[in-house]
Structures are given as structure tokens and as C-alpha cells.
């Protein structure tokens, strides 16, 4: 086993959006697990700019603040390479955990989720954001057959799966938003959407009124801002509006990403139309995870669903791909393959 490990650290806090100059890939001594920890060799970790921007900007209850000198954090899949005899984990077992952005991690046993030997056809799929989409659509929005579903950020890691999941749950019409004509075309051709609305064209509210003239029944909102305002205006009686992210604030050059600016809408609509407006985190519904894994596995193997993602080879390219993802160059989940096996955009 190597005596060193590479990891990506924050060098300085940016005034706006972070760039490659704010990070460094450095070599450190191999971490030594403490009592109750196992040593994991990471195979893959997810590049999740919105979450990193929030942590760099000051953190939240869910995500701790990052300071200069700290190693970045994020979802990862790796292999246990050493574990004490008392550990429930075994050497060679695949696990998911939160200490990505490094080759090796000493991870508390209770912070590791065993992935089993035969769940999901590709271990990378455990880094999908489908759990968030599935939990929000089944636990909070409770999609019903025939519902018109509106997903903001339809080409994001959450959005590319949300459209497909909504369709599989029986939605009658699925509408999403994106900032790229190329992504919009793929959303409609590949990911279950009937229509894709383009940011920066005419106002989203006007586009949504044309795409869903009778209104929407469900919102899965990853963006906030004017897109949330448009959804409230278009909501039908007893609509369920579920908020899972605020990308408009997290990836805005202004602000820190840790707080979102106010959103303005007519609150009387919530009362008169009996609209539910709900915040949702998948961590609040652990019962959804095994159910999601089972259904995701079956859907992947049958071809009913695809997992759009990009793999980038080598931890040394992690800061570059972070910048590319902030710039909107990639669709779906973006993953760094620590061991260096590159694949095409999927």
C-alpha cells in the first residue's frame, strides 16, 4: 500500500464563484484510522459545485463550513482497505461516505454505507442524485397518475433523473428548465421531458404558461428565484411544490452561496388554491433509500431509466472539472474517477 494520499484542499476563499486558483491538489501522508474508523481507498467522488459553494461561503446546518487549508468534502464510493477486527465492515467491501476529494480517507464506521456485492450494475450509480428526486416525488409531492410535473434545473444531476422518475410514476406531462439549447434537446429526447424551457429567452413564467396552459400539479425545484415564482403563479388547486435546492443563489457570482435572496410571489394563491409549499431533504426519509436502490436497480437493468453522467479520469483534474461544471459545460452527475479510467459523457 502507498504511504501517501493526494487530496484537494481549499487555498483561499473566493470573493465570488470559486475557480482553480482557489484550490490545490496536494500529497499528504496516508491517513491513520482512529478507533472506530476504517481506511477507505476512494474509487469515485462526485463534483457538486452548489454544495461546495455553500460550504465555502459559510456552510449550513447540513453542510459544514470550509476554511483555507481544509480538504473538500462530498459524496464518494470506495473500497475498505483496512478495518479493525471488531468492525462490521470487511476488507474489500464497497462503501459510500462523505469524505470525497481525496484518494484515501479514514472514515468513521457509522458514516459508511455498505453497498453490497450486487446492488446497481455500476458502482458509480450510487453517486446519482436520484434518491433526492425519488424521495421528493414520492414522499413530499406524492406524484399521481396524470399530474403535470415541473422540474427546475432539468439538466442537473437531480433533474435528469427527476424527469424520468416522474414519468415512471405516472406523470401525464413533464416540463423542465435549462440554460442550454443542446441540453434542452436531450431532456426531451432522452430524459422523459415533454418540453424544456430555456433560461435567458422569454420569461420563464410566459414559457411555462404556454407549455402548461392548465397549470401544474407538482413542482420539484432545484433553482429557486424567478422559476419558483413562475411555479407558484402556475400552480393548480392542491398543487404540491417541493423545494430541494437554490441553485440560483448557490451558483450566482453575487453573494456567498450560503444564503438565498428573497423570492416574491402572491401568498394569497397558497391559501385560495390550497397549495402546499414544502422544503425537502432526502436525509429526512431514510426509508426511501433502500426502496430507491431496489427500484433504480430494476429500472437500470430493464432500460426503463438511464443514469446520465460524466466521468473524468484522475484526481489531478478535479479542479478543472469543477470549473467546467460551474460553467454549465456538463449534463447530469459529474464524477472524478480517482483511479484514472476515463469514459465519455453518458
TrEMBL record:
Source species, domain of life: Bacteria
InterPro entries for the chain: ADH-like_C (IPR013149), ADH_N_2 (IPR041694), ER (IPR020843), GroES-like_sf (IPR011032), NAD(P)-bd_dom_sf (IPR036291), Zn-ADH-like_protein (IPR051397)
GO molecular function: oxidoreductase activity
Domain spans labelled Enoyl reductase (ER): 16-336
Gene3D superfamilies: Medium-chain alcohol dehydrogenases, catalytic domain, NAD(P)-binding Rossmann-like Domain
Matching PANTHER family: QUINONE OXIDOREDUCTASE-LIKE PROTEIN 2, SHORT-CHAIN DEHYDROGENASE/REDUCTASE
Protein name: NADP-dependent oxidoreductase
Species of the source: Nonomuraea glycinis
Taxonomic placement: Bacteria, Bacillati, Actinomycetota, Actinomycetes, Streptosporangiales
Amino acid at each position: 500500500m502507498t504511504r501517501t494520499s493526494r487530496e484537494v484542499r481549499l487555498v483561499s476563499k473566493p470573493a465570488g464563484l470559486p475557480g482553480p486558483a482557489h484550490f490545490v491538489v496536494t500529497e499528504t501522508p496516508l491517513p491513520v484510522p482512529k478507533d472506530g474508523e476504517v481506511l477507505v481507498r476512494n474509487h469515485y467522488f462526485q463534483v457538486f459545485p452548489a454544495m461546495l459553494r455553500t460550504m465555502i461561503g459559510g456552510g449550513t446546518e447540513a453542510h459544514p463550513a470550509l476554511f483555507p487549508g481544509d480538504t473538500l468534502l462530498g459524496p464518494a464510493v470506495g473500497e475498505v482497505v483496512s478495518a479493525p477486527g471488531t468492525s462490521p465492515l470487511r476488507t474489500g467491501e464497497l462503501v459510500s461516505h462523505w469524505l470525497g476529494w481525496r484518494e484515501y480517507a479514514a472514515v468513521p464506521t457509522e458514516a459508511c454505507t455498505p453497498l453490497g456485492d450486487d446492488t446497481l450494475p455500476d458502482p458509480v450509480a450510487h453517486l446519482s442524485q436520484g434518491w433526492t428526486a425519488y424521495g421528493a416525488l414520492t414522499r413530499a409531492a406524492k406524484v399521481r397518475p396524470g399530474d403535470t410535473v415541473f422540474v427546475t434545473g432539468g439538466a442537473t444531476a437531480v433533474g435528469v433523473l427527476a424527469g424520468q422518475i416522474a414519468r415512471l410514476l405516472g406523470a401525464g406531462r413533464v416540463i423542465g428548465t435549462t440554460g442550454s439549447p443542446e441540453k434542452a434537446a436531450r431532456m426531451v429526447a432522452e430524459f422523459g421531458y415533454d418540453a424544456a424551457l430555456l433560461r435567458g429567452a422569454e420569461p420563464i413564467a410566459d414559457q411555462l404558461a404556454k407549455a402548461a396552459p392548465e397549470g401544474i400539479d407538482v413542482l420539484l425545484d432545484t433553482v429557486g428565484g424567478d422559476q419558483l415564482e413562475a411555479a407558484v403563479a402556475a400552480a393548480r388547486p392542491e398543487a404540491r411544490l417541493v423545494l430541494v435546492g437554490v441553485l440560483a443563489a448557490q451558483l450566482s457570482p453575487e453573494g456567498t452561496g450560503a444564503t438565498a435572496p428573497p423570492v416574491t410571489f402572491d401568498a394569497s394563491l397558497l391559501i385560495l388554491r390550497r397549495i402546499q409549499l414544502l422544503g425537502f431533504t432526502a436525509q429526512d426519509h431514510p426509508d426511501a433509500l433502500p426502496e430507491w436502490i431496489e427500484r433504480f436497480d430494476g429500472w437500470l437493468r430493464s432500460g426503463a431509466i438511464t443514469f446520465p453522467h460524466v466521468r473524468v479520469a484522475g484526481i489531478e483534474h478535479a479542479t478543472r472539472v469543477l470549473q467546467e461544471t460551474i460553467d454549465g459545460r456538463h449534463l447530469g452527475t459529474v464524477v472524478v474517477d480517482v483511479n484514472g479510467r476515463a469514459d465519455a459523457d453518458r
